[in-house]
Amino acid sequence: MPALLVLLAVVGLAVGSFLNVVVWRVPRGESVVAPGSHCPSCAAAVRTRDNVPVLSWLLLRGRCRDCGTPISLRYPLVELLTAAVFVVLGARLGASWELPAYLYLGALGVALALIDLDVKRLPNVLVLPAYAVAPLLLTVPAVLDDRWPDLGRALLGGAALYAGYFALAFAYPAGMGFGDVKLAGVLGIYLGWLGWGPLAAGAFLGFLLGGVVGVALLAGRRATRKTAIPYGPFMLVGALLGVLAGSSITGAYLDVIGV
Predict the structure, then answer these.
(1) Quick one: 138 and 247 in the same domain?
(2) Rounded Cα gap, residues 236 and 179, in angstroms
(3) Residue 256 is part of which domain span?
(4) What is the residue-wise DSSP string for 124-147?
(5) What is the DSSP string of 28-95?
(6) Residue 169 domain-assigned?
(7) Which pLDDT band, with edges at 50, 70 and 90, does 258 fall under?
(8) pLDDT class for 48, splitting at 50, 70, 90?
(9) pLDDT of 135 above 90
(10) What Cα–Cα distance (Å) separates residue 27 from each residue in 111, 119, 123, 126, 201?
(11) Does residue 215 or residue 188 have the better pLDDT?
(12) pLDDT class for 132, splitting at 50, 70, 90?
């Protein structure tokens, strides 16, 4: 297990470096493949030795080698965040056939959360392919580990969470965007694979986190009732918590109410 976690940390750093490109370019409608990484100020190509996650930023002291323009601290933080997400998912799922599916979700979630915070939308180009990729990746453990009931529950979970969010968006369009509805279906697939408990916990925690932060912003006068607050990050954090501890959370709740 330690070797797996170290490997996941290294892979997570590399994926996080790519996600920085995704987060910057996708909202602008730019290709994430070409041109290669370059300084947005002077357009100088980033050298290979300057493209090592975290380490290059430290060695360059957070500045472009060519023009000296500051490089945002967010770049290494995104790389570290992605590595951390990969490690906790690896610790939760181990060396299993389902792990690649959840690593894809982890990478997708980091990108979507940051884009939603930046531009307050969840791009279809990232969300919609997940409706094909997630079931495809989860079919591997369904076949190899004979977990067809889990795959069926995953598809039902995706449909259920999509329908629930669709109803909320229809009832109160000003409070929820349709991007959140589409994301809900994807998260429902992953949470449903793990069980109805993780699905319920992940969905509830998203609402809880969003509500708590919304109230805090209102109380601190950092927002008003008309301020648009991106909800995608709360959905994604809630889903991650549901993946990591959803069964324990729902089990503890059922014990409290005596069920």
Answers:
(1) yes
(2) 13
(3) 120-259
(4) HHHHTTHHHHHHHHHHHHHHHTT-
(5) GT--SSSS-SB-TTT-PBPPGGG-STTHHHHHTTTB-TTT-PBPPTHHHHHHHHHHHHHHHHHHHH-S
(6) yes
(7) low
(8) confident
(9) yes
(10) 11, 7, 7, 10, 31
(11) 188
(12) very high
Joined together, the tokens standing for residue 182 give 């589409």
Q: What is the pTM of this model?
A: 0.93
Backbone angles phi, psi at 74, to 5 degrees: -60, -30
Amino acid, single-letter form, for residue 231: Y
DSSP classification of residue 123:
-
Task: Give the residue-averaged pLDDT of 27-40.
Answer: 85
Distance CA 27, CA 238 (A): 24
Lowest-pLDDT choice from 116-125, 151-160, 207-216, 217-226: 217-226
Residue 44's pLDDT is 78
Residue-by-residue DSSP string for 213-250:
HHHHHHHTTS--TT-----HHHHHHHHHHHHHHHHHHH
Provide the 8-state DSSP code for 12: H
Q: Are 91 and 150 part of one and the same domain?
A: no
Radius of gyration of the chain (CA): 20
Instruction: Using alpha carbons, list the distances in angstroms from residue 111 to 45, 117, 124, 243.
Output: 23, 10, 13, 18
pLDDT digits (tens, 9 = 90+) for 231-243: 999 999 999 999 9
Phi, psi of 168 (to 5 degrees): -65, -45
Which of 44, 60, 95 is where one domain is finished?
95
For tokens 């590399």, name the residue. 14
Structure tokens given for 209: 């986190």
